[in-house]
Amino acid sequence: MRTDNQASKRTLLPSWQTLVEHAEEMKAMHMNDLFTQDSERFLKFSIQLSPLLLDYSKNLITDKTLSHLIDLAKDSEVEQWREKMFKGERINRTEDRAVLHIALRNRRKNPIMLNGKNITLDVEKTLEKMRVFTEQVRQGQWLGHSNKRITDVVNIGVGGSNIGPQMVTEALKHYSDDSVQMHYVSNVDGTQIAEVLRPLNPERVLFIVSSKTFTTTETMTNARTAVNWLTSSSFNQKSVAKHFVAVSANKENAMAFGIDEENIFDMWDWVGGRFSLWSAIGLPIALDIGFEKFLELLEGAHEIDEHFCNTPLEQNAPVILALLSIWNCTFLGAQSQAILPYDQPLHKLSAYMQQAEMESNGKSVTWDGQEIDYPTVPSIWGELGINGQHAFYQYLHQSNNVVPADFIGSVESVTPVQGHHETLMANFFAQTQALMSGVNEKQVRDDLAARGHPQSYIDKVAPHKVHKGNRPTNTLLMKRISPKSLGSLIALYEQKIFVQGIILQVCSFDQWGVELGKGLANEIVKELSNKTIKESHDSSTKGLMKYYCSSK
Ligand code: F6P
């Protein structure tokens, strides 16, 4: 339902209108000229935070652009919404919930009140339970049913109950002492769980069933398979309990599944799945790197929360990142954004960012249900930078579509190997320079001539070698990947996503878009099992299902 005067309140803001006009002016500019005109550009358009440096000077912006964008943030009441979030107001409007993942990493431990209750105390209680548990498992005091120590932990979960902890354990492998081996099962494709379990000894395995709702079909299916795997060896139902813990906001379902109440770690409805790695959903991280280092991860995130709350918008890194995304996508027309880590440990970061940004802000109605007639967030994709260079960077440099990209690297490698890091980082710096400056036809022709190529060859090849440049990038440079710096990096993006949602007027904390397919699958699975395909399906779906059933 859309009424004309309500249709696009954002687009009616003077700052929005100004940005629309300003974007037209800026489209005619080239970043090369902006760098030539302003020798202070790097200093002006970079932010130094203790764990990282953000350079955003390679965007098609000027002082004017930034000032208009800041006006938009102010007109959109970003500061007021930030306060509402931190105060525990129910800003997840469609689900009528507070959004308080910031409370999970509130290392100053100041009270955060929700419905008259100080939730900081609940958080601390769960953290203490995590500490005791992780120490027991890591020190070999938590024994399986045959009194053997646990050597392998399998986390069963999907979406936010999988990708956050998995991305972090991969990123922090260097900090693991291998007290236990971590494994992840998320896919309902049985191949994954079969492959994970094949080499494991049931007597030494601990399963974590991670599910906020404890209803997710994929997770429940995998959890049942895990129980069957245990009971097919020397286990009985009672001994299974020693090999299962759960993380859930739905204690009842977890207990009904057979998990001891003692072994259930709390989660709360004010923590969204994709923002939950800071909660007990992060248990696999704590098991892998130890509880103290898990706290360092929280500390790093908390530092960003403090920066986000206390820094003027002009120097506020998450705000700037959000505004640049909106500038590049909503005003300049980019439709996708690449996340390009130049640090092997961050090899799952792009996948993590996909869920974080796209599940949060990939929406087309405003929080009060009006249709949105401007682009919201881009599609997020990416890969380790070096691998990407030899795959899709051709597209980044020369396709007709401009893809803004975030380059993420570290000054030091966690695993220094003679001669490698300099080569890696040379590529890191070269790529953003090339994407920005490009190379024009005259430069190409002069270069080919200097190399002695004949004119006919130069005429033929020159157009193909032109790189227009002017492709926006942000560079995030950490000193080194550590629990703390990683915590900061993730929280920086989380708060960016929050600001995007406020400015774009979407509810960043629901995910109705995943429900439709889920509901249909629940119906279809019955038809597949009974081989009775309903005529009411469209002819394509019906045809495919019939083909599938008859081919079995
Ligand atoms: O994909 C939808 C989703 O609800 C995610 O937001 C969530 O992280 C995931 O499913 C898993 O949900 P749960 O933790 O309840 O099993």
TrEMBL record:
Keywords from the UniProt entry: Cytoplasm, Gluconeogenesis, Glycolysis, Isomerase
Bilayer-spanning residue ranges: none
Taxonomic superkingdom: Bacteria
Enzyme class: isomerase
Annotated EC: 5.3.1.9
One GO BP annotation of this record: gluconeogenesis
Pathway of action: Carbohydrate degradation; glycolysis; D-glyceraldehyde 3-phosphate and glycerone phosphate from D-glucose: step 2/4; Carbohydrate biosynthesis; gluconeogenesis
Molecular function GO terms recorded: carbohydrate derivative binding; glucose-6-phosphate isomerase activity; monosaccharide binding
Keyword Transmembrane: no
PROSITE patterns: P_GLUCOSE_ISOMERASE_1 (PS00765), P_GLUCOSE_ISOMERASE_2 (PS00174), P_GLUCOSE_ISOMERASE_3 (PS51463)
Keyword Ubl conjugation: no
Secretion signal span: none
Catalytic residues (positions): E359, H390, K518
Cellular component GO terms held in the UniProt record: cytosol
Pfam families, sorted: PGI
Location relative to the cell: Cytoplasm
Catalytic reactions on record: alpha-D-glucose 6-phosphate = beta-D-fructose 6-phosphate
Described function: Catalyzes the reversible isomerization of glucose-6-phosphate to fructose-6-phosphate.
Recorded family membership: Belongs to the GPI family.
NCBIfam families: PRK00179.1
Name of protein: Glucose-6-phosphate isomerase
